[in-house]
Every structure is written in structure tokens, then in C-alpha cells.
User: Fold this.
Amino acid sequence: MQMTLRLGGCSVLMAAALAFATPRAKAEVFIDVGLSSSRIEADIPTITATISTTESGLHLGAGVYRALRNGSVGARIELDDLDSGLLLAVRALDYQHHLSERLAIGGFFGAARLDLATPAYGYYLGGGMRLRGILPSWDLGIDLRLGDTIARDNVLPSDPQGGERPDSFYDLTGISIYLSRRF
Assistant:
């Protein structure tokens, strides 16, 4: 028992020494401000045709990146004002590969919430390009986005009832152009 305590205490001291000896991880925080345009296709169970709308609005985002050898990895939260509601998206994994000091391409994967009569949830993915340093600490970004099978339960009395399934599905394709301010 005493030997276990010594080894355990030694392990804790070693871990603490290694934690203080390693360099601090640095992350780059940023905010995005821009415009977005999205096409939303709705698959409603009682309607045979797909309903499509195109909506544009303000794009806001905030996130963090950490530099890697030839790129960066991070996470981001986005908020898009669509005519029919709000799109809240989380990029759980956002990777950028730096082609040069100023140009990066990347891809992302996460989840989206479309604010409708009741919320719809689904996968969110896409890719884009970033031009770094158009002004000091300012970047220009453009992203192509896809919200795949964003599902909404039809639980309200005003919702279409019947059909083969109790859900409505929404597919989102869009583009966002924004300025990013790095801190």
C-alpha cells in the first residue's frame, strides 16, 4: 500500500512538472461578420412536391483556431438570419490547410439548428477559402455550406398530419461571404 502511494504521488509530481515545462498552447480567437444566401428545400410528408426557398441575410460567427504545422484546426459557432427563421450552426471540427502565408482552404463538420415553428436539427458540413491579412488582423472568407436532412418533428396542431412519417426534412445549401477579425 505504501509503495502504491509513493508511485501515485511520484506520478502526480511528474505530470505536474511536465505540465509546467511544456509551452503554453496558443489559440487565435476571431469573429465573423458578413452575408449569407441559402436555398432551403423542404420535404413535407403530406405534400408530394419539394418546396424550395432562397433566403439571404446577415452572417455572424465566432470561433477559435490553433495553428498546426501546415494549417490550423478549430471550432466555430455561426448564426445566420434567414427570412423564415434563424440558422444556428456549430462547426465542431473546422480544419484549414494553408496553401501559402495568405491563402487557406478548408472543410468543416458539425450540427445545425433551423429555427422553425419547432426546431429542426441535422448535420452541417462544407468547405471554403480564406484570404488572410487583407488588412491588419482582418481576413476575407467564403464558404459553401450544406445542411443535410435537418429534421423537424410535426407535433403542432397546425403541422401536416398523416403520411408515411411524422417528420419534415429540410436540406440547406448556401454560401457565406464574411470578414473575420482576429484577436
Notes: The longest strand covers residues 51-67. The chain has one domain: 27-182. Residues 1-5 have pLDDT under 50 and may be disordered. Helices lie at 2-21.
